[in-house]
Design a protein that fits this description.
This protein has four helices and no strands. It has 92 residues and is mainly α.
């Protein structure tokens, strides 16, 4: 159950610790009252990708209301909005 070798034991410990870290982070996000602190790195990556796609074709998210909602939500956060408004346009 705990591994027959030191390497197997290490891998099991690694997975157990990873899951514990994930649970701890998830609980923090679930009970956070400040919406801006609920944003994860994954949210920002999805926002960045969708923003890039949307800037090339404004209709690209028409059939994906949840992605559009995500783009609007993350894009309206004060820190994100200020950054996007201030950055120079990227030329293709």
């Amino acid at each position: 159950m705990y591994g027959k070798t030191a390497m197997e034991t290490f891998k099991i410990d690694e997975v157990v610790c990873l899951v514990n870290d994930f649970i701890a982070a998830t609980v923090k996000v679930m009970y956070e009252k400040d919406e801006t602190r609920k944003v994860t790195l994954a949210d920002i990556f999805v926002y960045d990708f969708m923003w890039s796609m949307n800037s090339r074709d404004a209709n690209i998210l028409n059939n994906f209301p949840l992605l559009q909602e995500h783009l609007d939500k993350i894009g309206s956060l004060p820190q994100i909005k200020a950054y996007v408004d201030a950055r120079k346009p990227t030329e293709a």
